[in-house]
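User: Cysteine desulfurase. Structure?
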Amino acid sequence: MIDDAEARRIRNDFPILNQQVNGSSLVYLDSGATSQNPLCVLEAEQEFYEQRNAAVHRGAHMLAVSATDAFENARETVAGFINAGMDEVVWTSNATEAINLVAYAFSNASAGRGGDAASRFVLGPGDELVVTEMEHHANLIPWQELAFRTGATLRYIPVDDAGALRLDEAEQIIGPRTKVVAFTHASNVLGTINPVDTLVRLAREAGAAVVLDACQSVPHMAVDVKALDVDFAAFSGHKMLGPTGIGVLYGKAELLNAMPPFLTGGSMITTVTMEKADYLPSPQRFEAGTQRISQAVALAAAVDYLRETGMDRIHAWEAELGQRLVAGLEAIDGVRVLGPAAGAERIGLAAFDVDGVHAHDVGQFLDDKGIAVRVGHHCAQPLHRRLGLVATTRASTYLYNTTDDVDAFLDAVAGVRPFFGAN
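Assistant: Predicted structure:
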């Protein structure tokens, strides 16, 4: 497992973390929103532009070949990281686009596109899509819209008062009418790691496709998409030490090759006439237009950095930091922590409510001390509403955080209510 000494060494690889904020050393606890970039990632993107910049899959000149090799080598690196085939990794702008890609491909199939191969994706009145009450909006609204476009019904698995999924109700909700089961691997609010095996089993029994939001899992733990047996998974580069503007859709090859495309245009076709077009197989059929080339190369550098550090070691360290966060917050009067209590499994983040003080005021108080956290509903309004809250403050850790970071944060939170006269 990583320890404080190694975390401090790792921190030195991240130039942005070595700065002062409001006269204090920066304590960055907002990696659940966007992680920082090690120098090797910044250099990988710069090196691409300095040495290889050209359009991929289009030119026969030396730079185009070099750019294409770098682009596809990046795909191979990311595919290996999650135990997928190269033809099962589609580049997107972010995880939100990846999930929308699947939802729109399903609605295109429902509109008659894709022929017999796509018939399994056709939806209509009487069909059901199932999500959970803890979903990020990016894994909720695309399915709401898909239901609207096709006449299917959207249902959700509720959470209990502690925020845990009601698996007893899931067994009743997922059934013969279910066509899609979409859920988060790890909650960006609760820190909960959901039982993928149970939900996949229920989906398989119903013959439904499984879509996994892996944004808070792939960056923080070893994820094997084959072992999980999900049909699709989405994650974002900027949450795993990579740049913004790059995301990944994993899909089983046989499903991707049966799906009609979402975006159309250049680089995703075989033959075009004035009347129709024929499309390339996956992944190119979903990568129309000029691609996120330098971002893919930089994401591969981030994956190499994570792999070299060791995902099991990262997960263990963040779990320790997460437990320290929760135990410390639970010990502060007037603080309510969402999600599993101290001692229960969670990823290294904690969202909390301070009695009598709005989350935005908490965040400003912490920022004045150089501590960066997230405030708001974290793109999960239905979950906050279910738990009786409008907004919370969230601290999220990564491999470059130390126990000193957590302790500085806890020290500051202990001073919130006295400062605002909420005692």
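The radius of gyration is 22 Å. The domain at 44-307 is CATH 3.40.640.10 (Aspartate Aminotransferase; domain 2).
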